[in-house]
Amino acid sequence: MTTIAQSTVPLAVNSRDAAPEEVVRFENVGLRYGLGPEVLQDVTFSLPAGSFHFLVGPSGAGKSSLLKLMYLALAPTRGLITLFGRDIATTPRRALPALRRRIGVVFQEFRLLSHLSTFDNVALPLRVAGNREEEVRRHVTELLGWVGLRDHMHARPPTLSGGQQQRIAIARAVIARPRLLLADEPTGNIDDRLAMRLMHLFVELNKLGTTVVVATHNESMVERMGFPVLRLDADPDELGVRVTRRPSMATPEDEAARIADAFEVPAGSRPKRA
């Protein structure tokens, strides 16, 4: 069985919650594709509300598969997955879309709608949620300015670079302030300075109460930011993976300040609460 020790990191808990709750819990989860061997084996961990974790591991260890289980794109072969206090196995299918709307996802392959403009791609979650158009325009315009795409808001994704498309995907994932944000290699196609600026956006969202999981190969960024780590280590003697947690003793405020100082992010520059 694979277990993860609980971290002692102070949590940035949403003020709406009286006490930290578990947003995600995996108990002895296994996953296989078809008749092949298990790509995830006996995975057990929990993510408290308001926590921030990096998910790291070698290529092929199962990071993307683990994220897909968390955003309900896959069902486990065995084991128990609980999201927002609900057992996914016993949750009616009609209730799953509402759960998914509480999750923001930055996909590795972006998954943008090519026939929509940058603005309309980012606005989509707010419009689906029924926000008034004037609010949609205000929040989307502000966020596109933050990620450096204000001048490209009317462009369609096929006309933009890979790095610009990645920033659209990030903006779309965070615009509705989800309770859980899952990002699969969100900084893979952009330079280090912009990568850290976007990570600062994730930190600010986390301080507003969002639970954040970022899958990455960028070990230097992980070390620099100092958040706890979920590590998938492929064991050559086993078919599955082992998950371990490295605790961090820094507070979210310390980490945000260190990122801002190191990368010259203006002190007053942060996304406003929607």
Structure notes:
The N terminus and C terminus are likely disordered. It is globular and about 45 Å long. It has a six-stranded mixed β-sheet, sandwiched between helices. It starts with 21 loop residues before the first strand and ends in a 12-residue tail after the last helix. The longest helix is centred in the C-terminal third of the chain and has 16 residues. The protein has eight helices and ten strands. With 274 residues, it is an alpha/beta fold.
Give the biggest sheet: 6 strands, mixed
Helical content (DSSP H or I, runs of 4+)? 25-40%
Average pLDDT score = 81
Helix-strand makeup class: alpha/beta
Radius of gyration: 18 Å
Number of helices: 8
Report the β-strand fraction as a percent range. Answer: 15-25%
Total strands? 10
- From the N-terminal CA to the C-terminal CA, the straight-line distance is 41 Å
Please sum up the structure shown.
This protein has 274 residues and is an alpha/beta fold.
List the helices and strands and how they pair.
Layout: E1 22-32, E2 38-48, E3 52-56, H1 63-70, E4 78-83, E5 86-87, H2 96-100, E6 103-106, H3 118-128, H4 133-146, H5 162-174, E7 180-184, H6 192-207, E8 211-215, H7 219-225, E9 229-234, E10 241-246, H8 252-262
Parallel strand pairs: 3-8, 3-9, 6-7, 7-8
Antiparallel strand pairs: 1-2, 1-4, 4-5, 9-10
Helix pairs in contact: 3-4, 3-5, 6-8
Give me some keywords for this one.
globular; six-stranded mixed β-sheet; disordered C terminus; 8 helices; 10 strands; 274 residues; alpha/beta; four-stranded antiparallel β-sheet; disordered N terminus
